[in-house]
């Protein structure tokens, strides 16, 4: 804990933004189609806020991410859309809270075909679009058993990337082992896993990779999973460059989600650590190396300068793993800071001199879509309610706060972040925290600031009513609701 507290002097600051030496002039935030930047959205799986070097971790080697953080903009108050995988991923592609679309949790709901997604917007603008790694927003087959929900009895759940504007895909429905992803790793005492010895029998894990046409991929699936995923990203980029097309590459690595296994060469880097740390740290370093490989490939192809690269995690670290949320309270599944505040950065070399080195305004995965819409210059559907907002005013130094609060829902929990205040609700009990003075959520000040508490509570319930209206079909009818046979998940129900 000590090293976190020491680093917080550098990392945690008042909820404001650093000054920007040069900012976008009025009207200069948009660019012409001929200058359209490439976009890469990298997401780790269950990576904690404190699991990277640029947030102060002294053990895990992440040199490439640290280098990108030094060269780009670090978001110190960045939130996943939810404390769970699927809802966050839905928020990335739609800019909307996943409760609007029924993606309440993993294996609940799908990203509805009627949703307007980032790849659809960019595909219409002439971008090559590809999705690589974890999908987790619907099943990829009903021809055979696959992962959590891919079954013959679940045709209504089939919802592959091709439905949402992607030209290319190499995807799994959900988690896989982070090394040799097709095979179940060796279990150790029911807690953690390790690589199978060469002579050991192989048992299929039960999750498969699928291409954009719905065909099972069976080649080049041995070794580190981050490398396996990146092996498909690079040819996609190369083809887009050859065709002189801008591209969107959504790269959602499985690391460090359980089963967490480090390839031998990365496990060896942590040989002095216990098994759990050796595998956990090793697979993160392996992912970091592949991010570096991707960056070097972009430079080789001459497109790095005009590529916008975002990095974040989908939620906080899993319980009972070596993953850490830094000094923050809570982990995955929790709406305390440790469950939703995640490591995040953006790099756009061609425009980086116009961006701050760090930004502390609260922002989230819902903000990706509207931010890219303003940067690239495409029009969003005005009839579709977004929960995210463009980060451009904050990045340009024109605003020190967002226009709308961040709203979170999960299980029996709710939360709302508005400026430096955070309202938290769980099973009928509510609390208020001042994140500027109490970022670790140790002191409930709801009684001292009853008016603030009442205002934020009322706002949260108002937004939940909006989400319910969207879920029920306000914006595009009830077809998907009826198809899914889904009931509204009421966070406020007594449990």
Shape: globular
State the strand order across the main sheet: 8-5-4-9-1-10-11-2-12
Got a strand count?
17
Unreliably modeled segments: 9-34
Count of the separate structural domains: 2
The level of helicity is: 25-40%
CATH level-4 homologous superfamily of the largest domain: Alkaline Phosphatase, subunit A
Q: Can you summarize the main beta sheet?
A: 9 strands, mixed
Which CATH architecture of the largest domain would you pick? 3-Layer(aba) Sandwich
Percent in strands: 15-25%
Number of helices: 12
Written account of the structure:
- This protein has 495 residues and is an alpha/beta fold.
- It folds into two domains: 36-395, Alkaline Phosphatase, subunit A; 406-484, Arylsulfatase, C-terminal domain (2-Layer Sandwich).
- 26% of the residues lie in helices and 15% in strands.
- It has helices at residues 2-11, 63-71, 85-94, 118-124, 225-242, 264-267, 275-300, 337-340, 368-376, 392-395, 450-471, 479-484, and strands at 38-44, 73-75, 78-79, 128-134, 168-172, 186-188, 192-194, 210-211, 247-252, 307-313, 345-347, 358-359, 363-364, 406-410, 413-418, 421-426, 429-434.
- It is globular.
- The two termini are 34 Å apart.
């Amino acid at each position: 804990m000590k090293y976190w507290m020491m680093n917080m002097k550098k990392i945690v600051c008042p909820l404001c933004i650093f000054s920007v030496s040069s900012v976008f002039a009025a009207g200069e935030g948009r660019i012409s189609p001929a200058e359209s930047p490439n976009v890469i959205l990298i997401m780790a799986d269950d990576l904690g806020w404190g699991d990277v070097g640029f947030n102060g971790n002294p053990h895990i080697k992440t040199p490439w991410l640290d280098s990108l953080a030094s060269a780009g903009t670090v978001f110190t108050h960045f939130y996943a859309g939810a404390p769970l995988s699927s809802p966050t991923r839905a928020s990335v592609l739609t800019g909307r809270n996943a409760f609007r679309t029924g993606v309440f949790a993993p294996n609940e709901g799908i990203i509805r075909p009627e949703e307007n997604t980032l790849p659809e917007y960019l595909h219409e603008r002439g971008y090559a679009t590809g999705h690589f790694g974890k999908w987790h927003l619907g099943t990829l087959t009903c021809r055979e058993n696959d992962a959590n929900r891919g079954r013959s009895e679940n045709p209504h759940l089939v919802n592959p990337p091709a439905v949402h504007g992607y030209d290319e895909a190499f995807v799994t429905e959900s988690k896989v082992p982070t090394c040799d992803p097709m095979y179940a790793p060796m279990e150790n005492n029911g807690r953690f896993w390790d690589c199978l010895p060469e002579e050991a029998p192989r048992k299929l894990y039960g999750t498969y990779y699928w291409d954009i046409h719905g065909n099972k991929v069976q080649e080049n699936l041995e070794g580190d999973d981050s490398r396996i995923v990146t092996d498909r990203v690079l040819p996609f980029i190369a083809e887009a460059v050859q065709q002189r097309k801008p591209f969107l590459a959504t790269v959602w690595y499985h690391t460090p989600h359980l089963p967490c296994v480090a390839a031998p060469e990365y496990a060896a880097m942590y040989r002095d650590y216990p098994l759990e740390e050796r595998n956990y740290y090793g697979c993160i370093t392996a992912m970091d190396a592949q991010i570096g490989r991707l960056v070097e490939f972009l430079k080789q192809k001459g497109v790095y300068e005009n590529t916008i690269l975002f990095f974040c995690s989908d939620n906080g670290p899993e319980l009972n793993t070596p993953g850490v949320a830094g000094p923050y309270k809570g982990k995955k599944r929790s709406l305390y800071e440790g469950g939703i505040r995640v490591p995040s950065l953006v790099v756009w070399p061609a425009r980086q001199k116009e961006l701050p080195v760090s930004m502390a305004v609260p922002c989230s995965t819902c903000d990706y879509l509207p931010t890219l819409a303003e940067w690239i210059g495409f029009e969003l559907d005005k009839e579709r309610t977004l929960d995210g907002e463009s980060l451009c005013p904050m990045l340009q130094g024109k605003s020190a706060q967002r226009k709308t609060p961040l709203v979170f829902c999960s299980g029996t929990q709710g939360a709302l972040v508005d400026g430096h205040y955070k309202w938290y609700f769980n099973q009928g009990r509510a609390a208020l925290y001042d994140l500027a003075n109490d970022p670790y959520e140790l002191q409930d000040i709801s009684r001292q600031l009853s008016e603030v508490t009442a205002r934020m509570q009322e706002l949260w319930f108002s937004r939940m009513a909006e989400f319910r209206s969207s879920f029920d079909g306000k914006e595009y009818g009830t077809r998907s609701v009826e198809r899914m046979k889904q009931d509204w998940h009421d966070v406020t129900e007594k449990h």
